[in-house]
Amino acid sequence: MYAAIDVDLKVVLHARLSEHRGRDPAETFLDELKEKHRVGDAEFLVDGMGYLTALARTDLIGHLDYSERNIVEKLFQMYTMRIERFHETWNGSQASAERWLTAYTAYYNHHRDHQALENQAPLNALELEDSI
After folding, report:
1. Residue 45 maps to which CATH number?
2. Can you point out the beta strands (E) in the chain?
3. What PANTHER family does this protein's entry cite (predicted)?
4. In angstroms, rounded to a whole number, what is the distance separating the alpha carbons of residues 67 and 46?
5. Is the predicted pLDDT of residue 132 greater than 50, yes or no?
6. Can you give the residue range of the structural domain that contains 104?
């Protein structure tokens, strides 16, 4: 799974399942992310050189940085835990898992309350601040 998470806003910008890891699936994910969001000025924190190559090939900037790793890993771990539970329970097709991932992303962004955001969902918190 690939996921782009805004660690400050707690918003999942894009998530995608992939049967493989590496530069090519990472490039596909990043291209999709660029189509959905303005991320040209974003800073990407990655955990391997292959991902730096994918960022460079998609004209994005990134670097290896382990100082923010706890924030990213906490969000990513919660996200993947939900997906693994789904897969173990309903061992369905890739298409079924992708539909569930899309639905969970919508729930996470629009309905799941976050303690760090005064018990509001990420996009609701943004709307209240007139940040969108």
Report:
1. 3.30.420.10
2. 2-6, 11-16, 43-46, 61-64
3. ISH14-TYPE TRANSPOSASE HSIRS44, PTHR39967
4. 11
5. no
6. 2-128
Identify the CA nearest to 36 among candidates 55, 17, 14: 14
Average pLDDT, the chain: 79
Rounded to the nearest 5 degrees, what angle is found at the Cα of 10, between the Cα atoms of 9 and 13?
Answer: 90
Total structural domains within the chain:
1
Lookup: tokens for 3: 């996921």
Residue 114 DSSP code? B
**Residue 15 buriedness (CB in 10 A; 0-12 / 13-18 / 19+):** buried
d(Cα 78, Cα 25) in Å, to the nearest integer? 22
Q: Is 25 exposed, middle or buried (0-12, 13-18, 19+ CB in 10 A)?
A: middle
Which of 9, 15, 1 has its CA nearest to residue 103? Answer: 15
User: The pTM is what?
Assistant: 0.74
Among the listed ranges 37-41, 78-82, 88-92, 104-108, which one has the minimum average pLDDT value? Answer: 88-92
Question: Is residue 30 exposed (0-12), middle (13-18) or buried (19+ Cβ within 10 Å)?
Answer: buried
Distance, in Å, from the CA atom of 11 to the CA atom of 64, rounded to the nearest integer, reads 21
